[in-house]
Amino acid sequence: MVSCSRRRALQLLGSAGVLTVSAGCSGPGSLDQLSLIASELNVSSVEALRQQEYLWDNPVDIPATTRVDFTDDTKTQYLSELFENGRVTVQQWPLVWRVSWGEETAPRPTFLEQDNTFYQVEIADEQYLERERWQFGVESVEETPPDDAVVVETPIDGSSQDKRVVEAALSAVYAGADDFLGEPEFDDLPTVEFHQGLDATASDLIPSPSFDFIKHQHSGEYYQPVTAQRRVHVPEWTYTITELTDVPSEFTTYARDEIIQYSLDNSLSTAARGVVDDAISEEDPRRYGESAPPSDKLLEVLTQLGIADDLQAIDEYPDRVDFDSVAATYDNSTYRFDFVVNP
Question: Would residue 65 count as lying in a domain?
Fold first, then answer.
């Protein structure tokens, strides 16, 4: 299985409000209408939990769901309040990772380590706020700017904030390509949002920059700035924290029980076991796939994984949906299962 890191997922997410693993992050090659994909999951030690990003000893590394990240100082302030008061309310910082679950999302177990003590952090409340926010973006232009145009070259002169905004806007244009190679693909112009950590009133880019075009110093390509004020939906999460233990072995046992919610051992028919065996196989296509509607054997597996009750008929989905990060045991091993519906 091709895995997707949290940072990559956030890059694909851009400035949207919910952290999900989107198309392109899970599953090799072309997919059937229904695909069950699996990969081995190691949650047997503290270090393994760190590697799988269930445990964070430096949560400041977790990026915000914005194209320009929050500062380390801002995140440190949030964490201080969380540990001191047992709860904190933040906007656009997914301290608890939410994964795709059909057309919705679901929280993933998240643990923190501080001063050799382990904690569990959970979402106590979630809401979406409507806010008016400035957006800055750039459009690629093929023609050379006219002689009387004001052209600046990257990195632009200006505040560190504005430099970060311009850099992020240029990167956003090519988020679907390999940096500045290839052609970008997007329906709407990707923009950088001036979130609560960026001061639009102190920016020389807002409401309009003093230049007409940006020339990228490496590619030599020209870009025209675009600004707009839009009404957006901003996610706000309230997190609570629970102290668990300072004994690594006790923590590992607790975390494993929180993460692994399902067992496929000794509960499946022979046909259903064949579905799982295909999903965990090391041979291509390294997944189990079939056309809709799901067969009885596939439904049996999806029921055991807690997916079937939330699954709709395929014609109810206008686009691809994923049911991600279901941890289950099978034949004395632990696997992460992802189920993809591809209309």
Answer: no
92 within some domain: no
Domain edge (last residue) among 177, 209, 235: 235
Give how many domains the chain has, as a whole number. Answer: 2
The alpha carbon of 183 is separated from its chain's Cα centroid by a whole number of angstroms, namely 23
Q: Do residues 82 and 88 lie in contact, with contact meaning Cβ atoms separated by under 8 Å? A: yes
Angle at 41 between CA 305 and CA 235, to 5 degrees: 70
Closest to 69 (Cα-Cα) out of 251, 193, 253: 193
Q: Rounded CA gap, 288 and 330, in Å?
A: 16
In a domain, 88, yes or no: no
CA distance 303 to 36: 13
Distance from C-alpha of 283 to C-alpha of 24, rounded to nearest angstrom: 20
Q: What is the DSSP string of 93-144?
A: --SS-EEEEETEEEE--EEEEETTEEEEEEEEEEEEEEEEEEEEEEEEE-SP
**CA angle (162, 164, 169) in 5-degree steps:** 95
Residue 86: inside a domain: no
pTM of the predicted model as reported, rounded to 2 decimal places = 0.82
User: Each residue of 182-233: pLDDT tens digit?
Assistant: 443 434 688 999 999 999 999 999 999 999 999 998 889 999 999 999 999 9
Q: Domain containing 301: what range?
A: 6-53+97-116+246-341
Do 211 and 137 sit in the same domain of this protein? yes
- Encode pLDDT of 170-189 as tens digits: 998 866 444 443 443 434 68
- Lookup result for tokens 């028919």: 269
Query: Which residue do the tokens 């380390």 mark?
Result: 72
Rg (CA), the chain: 23
- For residues 168 and 219, membership in a common domain is answered with yes
- One domain for residues 175 and 152: yes
Give the end of a domain, one of 235, 265, 290: 235
Contact 83, 75 (CB under 8 A): no
